Amino acid sequence: MIVTIDGPAGAGKSSISRRLADELGFEFLDTGAMYRAVALMGLRAKIDWDDTDRLVEFAKSATIDLSGRAVILDGEDVSHEIRSQEVTQVTRYAASNVGVREELVRLQREFAEGKDVVTEGRDQGTLVFPHAECKIFLTASPEERARRRVGDLARRGETVDFEDILQQQAKRDEEDTQREVGPLLKAEDAVEVMTDGMSEVEVLQKLVGIVQRYQ
Ligand code: C5P
């Protein structure tokens, strides 16, 4: 069974999706981590971001292991580094690159082959797994999402301004929804869950209930 969870940045998808996968005994696929890992490779190699072919080469040559709790890029644990502000800012170059998307979508389908999976991203229910048994669109208001992001970064020791985060988020939302390839879109058959004012446990319970309807 495939459960897709799509939605905008900061809707709390990653932590909730992982907990949902644990609860159901399913594998978990964090597709944002894959785009982040490719962007990190570009950042480390100090590439010219206009050099789109170079990023495709990175995506093709990388070994990204998402089978455990950590994100392992070519044998190195980059779980923490890929969530930094610096990587977040440049991930758009990987996400808007047609060749990178083709390669990562191929890897995502390969990962899910023959397994029960909760997969999280922007295009999972629309493009990557259009025949998924259960599709969820997880969202929250821009202010609530920015508040959560500020909290996440504070826990990492990064101090940021709320208004700056709100602005960056609006830019990311626009890029995510306007992108020509794999844009953020609610699948027609997805169940929308608006999480404003809900605790993580409440959201989790709600999602478990939704998945059970399709099992
Ligand atoms: O979900 P997360 O914030 O980790 O995603 C990082 C970036 O990767 C997002 O801003 C989005 O542009 C991109 N992404 C994507 N397609 C996915 C998952 C993430 O384009 N399936």
From TrEMBL:
It catalyses: CMP + ATP = CDP + ADP; dCMP + ATP = dCDP + ADP. GO terms for cellular component: cytosol. InterPro entries: Cytidylate_kin (IPR003136), Cytidylate_kinase_dom (IPR011994), P-loop_NTPase (IPR027417). The keyword Ribosomal protein does not apply. Its EC number is 2.7.4.25. It is found in: Cytoplasm. Keywords: ATP-binding, Cytoplasm, Kinase, Nucleotide-binding, Transferase. It comes from the Bacteria. GO terms for biological process: nucleobase-containing small molecule interconversion; pyrimidine nucleotide metabolic process. SUPFAM superfamilies: P-loop containing nucleoside triphosphate hydrolases (SSF52540). Pfam families: Cytidylate_kin. HAMAP family: Cytidyl_kinase_type1. Belongs to the cytidylate kinase family. Type 1 subfamily. NCBIfam families: cmk. This is Cytidylate kinase. It comes from Bremerella volcania. The lineage of its organism: Bacteria, Pseudomonadati, Planctomycetota, Planctomycetia, Pirellulales. The gene is cmk.
